[in-house]
Design a protein that fits this description.
Number of helices: 5
Number of strands: 5
Strand order of the largest sheet: 1-2-3-4-5
Order of helices and strands: HEEHEHEHEH
Strand content: 15-25%
Largest sheet: 5 strands, mixed
CATH class: Alpha Beta
Helix content: 40-55%
Radius of gyration: 13 Å
CATH superfamily: STAS domain
Distance between the termini: 34 Å
Shape: globular
Structural class: alpha/beta
CATH architecture: 2-Layer Sandwich
Number of domains: 1
Length: 118
């Protein structure tokens, strides 16, 4: 599980947490990410989490369920979740899955995601 922490980058910019997800995604890495975000949201007054999926070429149903659960937890702590950098195949897959899109916002670029949180 230690390797997961090294591969997932979580940084803070102002009152936002920014996550860069690597490819391939794994259940262990997403579980570790959920734990990291909960810990940081409890300790800091972050109002948003931006999850950068630029490097993610493929996803499966389980990975998007984990991301949806992360967004739900972020919402409980008062933070909005924004997904950024979805590749065409990932966006198409996401559009076909039964997810609660009210939990998340979407941006094409990191710059747009940061503007959405201003």
């Amino acid at each position: 599980m230690q390797q997961c922490s090294l591969r997932t980058s979580v940084s803070q910019v102002r009152n936002l947490l920014i996550v860069n997800l690597p490819f391939p995604l794994s259940d262990a890495m997403l579980n570790d990410l959920a734990d990291q975000l909960r810990e940081r949201l409890v300790k800091r007054s972050c109002r948003g989490v931006i999850i950068d999926l630029t490097a993610v070429a493929l996803v499966d149903y389980g990975a998007f369920q984990a991301i949806e659960n992360i967004a739900r937890c972020n919402q409980v702590f008062g933070a909005t979740t924004t997904l950024v950098g979805l590749q065409a195949g990932v966006a198409l897959y996401l559009a076909q899955c039964p997810f609660d899109f009210g939990l998340m916002r979407f941006a094409r670029t990191m710059e747009k995601a940061l503007q959405m949180h201003e």
